[in-house]
Amino acid sequence: MPTNVMETWLASSHLSGANSTYIEDLYESYLEDPCSVDANWREVFNELPSVSDLPEERHSVIREQMKHAAKSPKSFVSPQGAVHNDAKQVKVLQLIGAYRNRGHEVANLDPLGLAKTETVKELDPFYHDLSGSDLDANFNVGSFAAGNETMILKDLIASLKRTYCGSLGVEYMHITDTEEKRWIQNRIESSESRPSFSNEAKQRFLEELTAAEGLERYIGSKFPGAKRFSLEGGDSFVPMLKELIRRSGEQGAEAVVIGMAHRGRLNVLVNVLGKKPTDLFNEFAGKHANIDGSSDVKYHQGFSSDFKTPKGNVHLSLAFNPSHLEIINPVVLGSVRARQERLNGIGESVLPITIHGDSAIAGQGVVQETFNMSQARAFKVSGTVRIVINNQVGFTTSNREDTRSTRYCTDIAKMVQAPIFHVNGDDPEAVMHATQIAIDFRNKFKRDVVIDLVCYRRHGHNEADEPSATQPLMYQNIKKHPTPRQIYSKQLESEGVISAEDAKTLVSNYRDALDNGECVVKEWQSMQGNSIDWTPYLKHTWQSPYEAGFQKDRLRELAESISQYPEDQKQHARVAKIYKDRLLMARGEKLCDWGFAENLAYATLLDSKYNIRLVGQDSGRGTFFHRHAVLHEQSEAGRYIPLQNISDEQGHFDVHDSVLSEEAVLAFEYGYSTSAPKGLCIWEAQFGDFANGAQVVFDQFLSSGEQKWGRMCGLTVLLPHGYEGQGPEHSSARLERYLQLCAEHNMQVCVPSTPAQVYHMLRRQVIRSMRRPLIVMSPKSLLRHPMAVSSLDELASGTFMNAIGEVDELDSKAVDRVILCSGKVYYELLDKRRDEKLNNVAIVRIEQLYPFPMDELNSILEEYAHVKDFVWCQEEPQNQGAWYCSQHNFRSVLPEGASLQYAGRAASASTAVGYMSLHVKQQKALVNQALGFDEE
């Protein structure tokens, strides 16, 4: 830009006054990355003189420097008095910025040397107009931490290459927080990405590499062809994981929870957590102890142990994981959150580590959901260390072009500005350096961090696979390529750290240890009580007795307490009316509605010192404006939560409006509930239909976790359900899917129809010592239905009824038809029957569809033993709802010779119709059909 044009530009109004701060920010962005600012601004800044690295100079003299540049762009005397070749100095700073931004693109990351590295022109000094004569000149290096304030250019370039283009490539310039960015810069630049390790540490790394390789070879020779999802090629992962545990223990961690898929899992079990090789080999041989349930394959199994660190033992938990690879991540984080809260603080006390595959982290949406949760109030765990075992070939035999659209598989992590450390798996010391920086960053800044362990897979996806059929060049190279242990052993021999004989001894000693069959992890310790005590919840059944009642006077006190808020807090008029009505309910002047009874159930549990966690997309107020557990002051936007203000000694009450996710959030809550057995943990769907997006959690964890892995869970799931004419996406919670999953008394499926029922159902879930999932078809219109009300007496002295018999005073001998039903349709049947004054039809509600309440129904139906005409009535289409999954149960309680008819909508591909008029017509028809009226 010509000088006279620049002068005019700099003198224009947008460069003065309040805009100066904007210009200063632009200039700092330019110093970090010249390409981050507009081309016009870049041209202005390119002509600026040298700028001192001192912060006060950046912010106090920037405008003066710009004006000076317009008048004399070739030279500048800094406030310190040093004369520089200003244009060249700026170019040097740009070169440093280029290496920080893009050095990782040419780093030596691929152990096989097959990855194509494109030239990055910004890393060439000539691109920045630095000629050969400049290479011997001395320049100020600004904040570059590897040298002094000034360096000869050629030495600077060599240092930049060692720092940013060696075995460790670091992406961190996308981070906007200057402190975080500077911290990483200082850590990697001060050591040029090559820290100094003691001989003892190097020997330990080699010993751990030997163990990683030794186990795989041992299993491969002893059980040839058996699936083990070998770690070979990514062997450095084992010393990496152990270093994370050691260093986290040194910094105060009491527990580490690990989630990973099957690649390398057996190696982690034996060489990190200390599972006995004998036990693993017995599993390969098909030997196992007598077990309850169905169990699971060995590379899905979890494990727990204690690990000795210099500052004390760290409890390790490897989460059980199905083959839905990334779904374990939110489960781990939920478990970590519960453990952190139990240890009185979300911080360093419990460290989550999640291990990913290169295709899975880029390809599976739950990864994005989990990253998005990482700083949300309900789900934060002070950062997760995320490790990618990047074998560069995807999950089977894919190429990068087939598995993602980004340069790196880890690019998804940039959405939360996580630093990413790409490291060559054949360089154990670079791996250890990245590991130490990663855990230190997490502990300091409480944020996620990613380590991309770039390695390879020596065998196929499993050991029966033949990868060379689709990746011939890669696997020709792999067959000739030495293992990480061999490479590092040669390195240490050349350094004089060990001898060749020492390396051989390590190999033979480890093989002898495997032959012996006992634990091979030196740091292993017997568990000393860090694990969660599930003893009180073992060996209980659905019939286990519990105290259902609650003292009525105290119930009234709690009802008054949770129905009030501070007088100086202005509430929305509708909310104020709801709370005014609740005071009347508390005083017995009005019957209890759904929201009041639900909140009162929470209050009684909190008063008994149980903790409660309630999470969902609108859980604070309730999607259907009924709960209002969180009150929002209207003038100052403050919050008041009555359930947190019952007493000084109450249980802890947490209610959170969650991120807009079903899969990751439900998985998080599952993980939380598996680590917090005493309290009540609830996930509420905004609409029951939306739980479709979390089906894998129901299928793989909630319905079968106890049978596969012995993992008990008391999670409660509220799924709003009911046909209100709102169309196919807002009607059905897919009741049939949950009933189809029911077997072996694995979970409860309930459809409560009164406020008293929901009150007792929630209390039963906590007070009863059995811990199994509770699936609730929760209502919508019943929340304010004039007939769906209960008295305080029903709450104080009642209990949850799995089935409810006829409520009107009918002559049972005159009854010739009995309708069985669940949920909202009961009130429509009842209303119609009363209107028509039918005395020959009884209506029985089944409030718990599974486990099926056979004894209760047999008792209820005794007085109708003469009836031959029974009807199951439902709102859902015939191929949905309870009809297909439960009719065998319905038939089992009918009197001998009785028949069972279906009354409901016809089978349908969709859950509901989209037009209100058609809905009303269908609803009227099914009610009439159930009551025996002819179709109108």
TrEMBL record:
InterPro entries: 2-oxogl_dehyd_N (IPR032106), 2oxoglutarate_DH_E1 (IPR011603), DH_E1 (IPR001017), KGD_C_sf (IPR042179), ODO-1/KGD_C (IPR031717), THDP-binding (IPR029061), Transketolase-like_Pyr-bd (IPR005475)
Assigned keywords, A-Z: Oxidoreductase, Thiamine pyrophosphate
Residue stretches making up the Transketolase-like pyrimidine-binding domain: 592-785
Listed CDD domains: TPP_E1_OGDC_like (cd02016)
Role description: E1 component of the 2-oxoglutarate dehydrogenase (OGDH) complex which catalyzes the decarboxylation of 2-oxoglutarate, the first step in the conversion of 2-oxoglutarate to succinyl-CoA and CO(2).
Cross-referenced PANTHER family: 2-OXOADIPATE DEHYDROGENASE COMPLEX COMPONENT E1, 2-OXOGLUTARATE DEHYDROGENASE
Family: Belongs to the alpha-ketoglutarate dehydrogenase family.
Listed name of the protein: oxoglutarate dehydrogenase (succinyl-transferring)
Gene: sucA
